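pls design
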């Protein structure tokens, strides 16, 4: 039997705001541990979060650039789980009422252009960071990152190969950087990607059991991890086995994915509306104002360079790969 992969990607992008999403603390990377903190982002009892308007604006920019429908009203929800880098015991995220849905982007593949759907974009806060000391049996926590604004961009399961996944990822990455809403630094974790992968018999419609892949901190690793995981699942299925629903970590040195834990379902998080935050209303006038300020996006720029400057598609791709170089050209 022949199998085909079905891949969906979840991208977390840190937004380039000066202040965190629900307090006035700085978002600057690299400060001494726990210096960019206050009672709100430390999750002290009795404090109240206040939404940073700039976060909504940057989310709208990305939603417009990816052809999403922007909902007139959205709200925040608590995603409950316990982890030492999450002092409140819940993450403020969005669940049942996201601000943007039903978008798409186009990627250029060898066979031509392909459209990949975007299920939703929502806003949330980042968690802190744990540091494990190899020599001493202690773990340290740095809460500077707690409350740094993120958008999560969830794709439809439209991606059918590791190459397509890499092309989609590059498209979103360059769009975020062109829009000047994320610095795109994968090593510092400001652009992160998780992937859901499953296989199904070729020509069928139902989805197979999926594994979630984490810990891929470069474009190359995303592609390698997906290639490995597709082969691994194929091997399991061809041997008559069953794929287990779980979260797997990419191990770069081993060149393999390894089981980390059983995959949670949404109901494990006991989502409920955050009673500390009012619904967010986005009116048409605000959307239009933001739309007017959008820059030319990389794909449009590429096509214009080919048309107006009569350079090859390849050269246009190289020149527009970074916005700085394209502006200089
Ligand atoms: Zn704070």
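designed seq:
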């Amino acid at each position: 039997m022949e199998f085909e992969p079905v891949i969906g990607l979840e991208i977390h992008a840190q937004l380039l705001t000066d202040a965190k999403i629900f307090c006035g603390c700085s978002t600057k990377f690299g400060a001494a541990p726990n210096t960019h903190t206050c009672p709100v982002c430390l999750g002290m009892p009795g404090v109240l979060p206040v939404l940073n308007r700039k976060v909504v604006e940057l989310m709208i920019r990305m939603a417009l650039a990816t052809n999403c429908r922007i909902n007139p009203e959205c709200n925040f929800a608590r995603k409950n789980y316990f982890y030492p880098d999450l002092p409140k015991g819940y993450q403020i995220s969005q669940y049942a009422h996201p601000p943007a849905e039903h978008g798409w982007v186009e990627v250029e593949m060898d066979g031509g252009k392909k459209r990949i759907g975007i299920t939703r974009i929502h806003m949330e806060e980042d968690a802190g960071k744990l540091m494990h000391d190899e020599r001493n049996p202690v773990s340290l926590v740095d809460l500077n990152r707690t409350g740094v604004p993120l958008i999560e961009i969830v794709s439809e399961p439209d991606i059918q190969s590791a190459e397509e996944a890499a092309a989609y990822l590059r498209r979103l990455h360059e769009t975020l950087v062109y829009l000047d809403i994320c610095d795109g630094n994968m090593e510092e974790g400001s652009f992160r990607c998780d992937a859901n992968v499953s296989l199904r018999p070729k020509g069928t419609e139902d989805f197979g059991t999926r594994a979630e892949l984490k810990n891929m901190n470069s474009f190359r690793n995303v592609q390698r991890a997906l290639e490995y995981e597709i082969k691994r699942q194929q091997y399991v299925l061809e041997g008559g086995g069953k794929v287990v629903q779980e979260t797997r970590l990419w191990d770069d040195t081993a060149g393999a994915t390894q089981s980390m834990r059983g995959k949670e379902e949404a109901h494990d998080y006991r989502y409920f509306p955050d009673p500390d935050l009012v619904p967010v209303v986005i009116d048409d006038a605000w959307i239009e104002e933001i739309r007017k300020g959008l820059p030319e996006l990389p794909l449009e720029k590429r096509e214009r360079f080919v048309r107006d400057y009569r350079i090859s598609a390849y050269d246009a791709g190289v020149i527009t790969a970074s916005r700085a170089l394209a502006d200089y050209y």
